[in-house]
């Protein structure tokens, strides 16, 4: 089956599902969350409706989802303002990972080895996914198309020093293909 690294937001879930299905009809075996931000985890249900799905992520993701449930009103207000989306409703239902890890997890899916490495940076629950045989690195939001959002007055502050360490660790892998979370 297929492995998804992140599954998209509520706004992109249909398009992500459609694009994956245009590429392959194979069942999705595993979804890996690089971190618990809603733009990375909300497309899981569409694939899970087709077949059972194993969801994998860092052990701190469940605590993030619980915090998001408690602060849905606040998150609605600040994200409406930040992203200029009046009427945005923050989600309250989340698919918690079935398999979690603390520092590193090695997975074998269909003979393909995937390494999950925990780093703090934009979030405390961040993973990068390294596929050694192909030298492919999926960075989530630890590397994106813009300068890192190291914090702002309305959101949880980020881990700037650890983020720099994560960038150094990713560079040391010498990836041939870099797949960022955005851009």
Structural features, described:
The protein is α/β, with parallel strands linked by helices and 183 residues long. It has 6 helices and 9 strands; from the N terminus they run βαβααβααβββββαβ. The strands form 2 sheets. Strands 5-6-7-8-9 form a 5-stranded mixed beta sheet. The protein has a 4-stranded parallel beta sheet with strand order 1-2-3-4. Strand 8, helix 6 and strand 9 form a beta-alpha-beta unit. The longest helix has 13 residues. The mean pLDDT is 94.
Topology:
Blueprint: E1 2-5, H1 13-23, E2 28-32, H2 38-41, H3 44-48, E3 54-58, H4 61-70, H5 72-83, E4 99-101, E5 104-109, E6 112-119, E7 126-131, E8 136-140, H6 160-172, E9 177-180
Parallel strand pairs: 1-2, 2-3, 3-4, 8-9
Antiparallel strand pairs: 5-6, 6-7, 7-8
List keywords for this structure.
183 residues, alpha/beta, four-stranded parallel β-sheet, 30% helix
What can be said about this structure in brief?
This protein is α/β, with parallel strands linked by helices and 183 residues long. The chain has six helices and nine strands. A hairpin with a 2-residue loop joins strand 5 and strand 6.
The fraction of residues assigned to DSSP E strands is 25-35%
Shape annotation: globular
* Order of the strands making up the biggest sheet: 5-6-7-8-9
Largest sheet: 5 strands, mixed
Number of helices in the DSSP assignment? 6
Helical amount: 25-40%
């Amino acid at each position: 089956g297929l492995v998804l690294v992140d599954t998209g937001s509520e706004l992109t879930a249909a398009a992500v599902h459609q694009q994956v299905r245009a590429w392959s009809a194979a069942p999705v075996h595993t979804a890996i969350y690089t971190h618990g931000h809603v733009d990375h985890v909300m497309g899981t249900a569409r694939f899970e409706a087709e077949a059972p799905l194993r969801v994998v992520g860092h052990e701190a993701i469940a605590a993030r989802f619980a915090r998001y449930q408690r602060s849905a009103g606040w998150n609605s207000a600040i994200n409406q303002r930040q992203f200029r989306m009046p009427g945005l409703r923050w989600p309250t239902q989340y698919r918690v990972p079935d398999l979690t890890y603390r520092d590193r997890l090695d997975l074998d899916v269909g003979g393909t080895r995937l390494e999950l490495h925990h780093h703090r940076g934009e979030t405390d629950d961040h993973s990068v996914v390294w596929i050694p045989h192909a030298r492919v690195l999926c960075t989530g939001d630890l590397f994106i198309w813009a300068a890192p959002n190291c914090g702002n007055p309305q959101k949880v502050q980020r881990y700037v020093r650890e983020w720099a360490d994560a960038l150094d660790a990713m560079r040391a892998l010498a990836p041939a293909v870099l797949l960022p979370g955005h851009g």
